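Why do we care about 3D structure at all? Because function follows from shape, and shape follows, mostly, from sequence. That is the central idea of this module. The next example makes it concrete: a single protein chain, its amino acid sequence, and then its structure expressed as C-alpha cells.
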Amino acid sequence: VITGNILISAISQGRASSNPLRWQTRHKAILKLPKGVEFEPSLDEKGLLKQIQLDLGQVISAQKRPLYPDKDWARTHNNQTPELSPDEVLIENTAHQDAKFHLADGKTFSISELEDKRKAEILKVINPATQRVTLQVMEKQSNKLTAVRLHIHGEAGEYLAPIDRHRIPNPAWFEDYSVDYVNGSFHYSTYIPGETTIDLPLGNVYIEISKGFEIKPTRKVISIKPSTKKIVIKIDKILPWREKGWVSADTHVHFLSPSSALLEGAAEGVNIVNLLASQWGELMTNVGDFDGKTTYGSREAGGDGEYLVRVGTENRQHVMGHISLLGYRGNIIAP
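And the structure:
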C-alpha cells in the first residue's frame, strides 16, 4: 500500500511579450482568397478552419463577405439581401498581440503586421467597433420613441448589432429566443423598442430602419467620429391607415415569448399578434404562456392598447388539418 501526497508540477518557458493567456478584444479582418479558390466553411475534427488559423488565439467566425450597395445605399430598397463576395472572407477573431495567422498555403502573418499595407492584399484589418453610441428612433409626427426593425453594417459589410443582440443571428427553427430577423441567409436585422446601445467603428456606417407598411423605410449613411455619442433618427408616417380605423393583425405566430411578440409586432406595425400555443409531436411551444384571459399590451395589462398580443392555440392534425383558435377565454382547448 502506497501512502502520501503526490505533487505534479510543470514550468513553461516562452518569449511572449506579455501573459500568453491574456488575449485582446475581438477584431475583424478580410481574408482575400487566391484566384479560383472557394471558401471552405467546414471545420476539422479539432474545430479549426482549413484556410485560416491562429496559434495564440481563436478564429471566432468566418463567412463570405456581404457586398452591399453602399454607394447607392440611401436610394436602394429596404430589406435588400446583399450579394456575397466570391473570394473575400469576413473573419472575426480574438488573439494575443504576438499571435500569428496561418494560411492554407503556408504563409503566416503576425497580428502586429496587419497594419502593413503590403500585407493588406491578403489579410486586411477592419476598423474595430469600439465607439459606444446610443441610438434613438422617433416617429416624426409624435416625436416619441418607437419600436422598429434595425440593420446596421460597416464599411466592410460587417453586421453591427446592439450590445444585447446576436452578432450572427440564428436563422434555424426554434433554436433561439433573441428578437432578430434574417432575410435570406445574410441580411441581418434586429428589433429594438426605440432606443438601443451599440458599439460602432469609426468611419461610415449604413443604417436601415423599417416599421411595417405605414412608415416610410429609411436608409441612411452616418459618419462615426470619436465625438459621436448619440444618433437620433426620425421616421415618417406616410399612410394614415390606422387613423382611418384600419387595424393590422397576424393570426398565426409561433416560437416567441409574449413580450418578444409584443416588441416584434410593434416594430413591424402589426397591431394584433395571435401567438399560438401548439404541440409538435414531443415538442410543446407557448403552452405555459396560455392563461385564457391576458391580452398583453392592453391598458388593463399596463400597455397603451395600440399593440396587442393574445395567446391562443393551434391544434395540428394530419388528417383534419390545422385549427387555430383565437382570443378565447377559459381553459386551454386540448385536442
